[in-house]
Design brief:
Low-confidence stretches: none
Number of domains: 3
Largest sheet: 5 strands, antiparallel
CATH superfamily of the largest domain: PAS domain
Helix content: 55-70%
Radius of gyration: 47 Å
Number of helices: 9
CATH topology of the largest domain: Beta-Lactamase
Oligomer: single chain
Mean pLDDT: 76
Number of strands: 5
Shape: elongated
CATH class of the largest domain: Alpha Beta
Order of helices and strands: HHEEHHHHEEEHHH
Distance between the termini: 111 Å
């Protein structure tokens, strides 16, 4: 038998008992009637009814509480799954990312690339300025602090404008060995909710390789520019010497070509080889004297 059926039967019996007691009281026309003939059944029936109502209400509250707890557990699981998915997306990004609050402390929202750039350790709760911007001067850190405070307190200015007024867009991280320094560029993005800046995301990009390639390219270009400048100076001040060198060079190359034709014809001997080497050394010496 179901619990609901049992409760209904008990409830009906309690109601009948209460009705019997009350009816006994109402039907008393003046004849003496004992207290137990009406009061006890009435009280018993009403008490059972009260207990049943209270018990059913308690069951409903317990059931509602269990349902609410189950919903909370499910919502917590969904939040954990969503956080794991978001962290997975963060970790897949090529840029380093961390999130700070108004206290300028790094929150738990940072990805693997951020840890790769600045070191593998627990960054949660670390002060941004002293932990990340270690190579910046105190003046630069103070300017950055003021800029971040402005970013938190203003939703009117754009992120582009805030990035433009940063004291610098670059961080140099110092490695354990000479030459291990890394060049990192960063920018800030405000996270606005309900017209208030709740958090700021910092995006870091390691530009070490591109920076070194640019430096090498600038070095090669400087060599070319220096040589071009030297040639221009020679042409301006010693034009006759340069023209004489080119005439001599042309003549020497014709001599080398003649000696090579002899080799092609099969006239192979040590004298031909010595002549070619002597001519080439002569060209090299003249070029060196002119700093070519």
């Amino acid at each position: 038998m179901k619990k609901s059926t049992i409760f209904i039967i008990i409830f009906i019996c309690a109601v009948l008992t209460a009705v019997f007691g009350i009816a006994a009281f109402l039907m008393n026309t003046g004849d003496p009637i004992s207290l137990s003939q009406w009061a006890v059944p009435a009280a018993l029936g009403l008490g059972v009814i009260f207990l049943l109502v209270f018990f059913l209400s308690s069951l409903k509250l317990v059931s509602g509480s269990e349902k609410l707890e189950a919903e909370l557990v499910e919502n917590r699981a969904l939040q954990d799954e969503s956080s794991a998915s978001m962290q997975s997306v963060f970790d897949s990004l090529a840029s380093g990312i961390c999130v700070i609050g108004r206290d300028l402390l790094i929150q738990d929202n940072y990805n693997k690339e951020f840890a790769n750039i600045f070191g593998l350790r627990d960054w949660k709760g670390q002060p941004l300025l002293s932990a990340v911007f270690t190579t910046w001067s105190s003046g630069q850190k103070e300017e950055l602090k003021q800029t971040l405070e402005l970013a938190f307190n203003s939703t009117v200015s754009s992120d582009e404008m805030l990035n433009d007024i940063l004291p610098s867009r670059e961080i140099v991280t110092v490695g354990a060995l000479p030459g291990d320094a890394r060049y990192v560029e960063f920018s800030i993005v405000r996270m606005i909710r309900r017209e208030m800046v709740e958090q700021i995301m910092l995006i870091f990009n390691d530009v070490t390789l591109s920076r070194k390639m640019k430096q090498e390219e600038e070095g090669h270009q400087k060599v070319i520019d220096d040589q071009s400048e030297r040639i221009n100076q020679i042409l301006q001040h010693d034009r006759g010497v340069v023209l004489s060198f080119f005439h001599s060079f042309t003549s020497s190359m014709e001599s080398v070509a003649g000696e090579l034709r002899k080799l092609v014809k099969g006239e192979v001997n040590d004298e031909i080889v010595r002549n070619i080497v002597a001519i080439v050394h002569g060209i090299k010496g003249e070029a060196f004297s002119l700093e070519f």
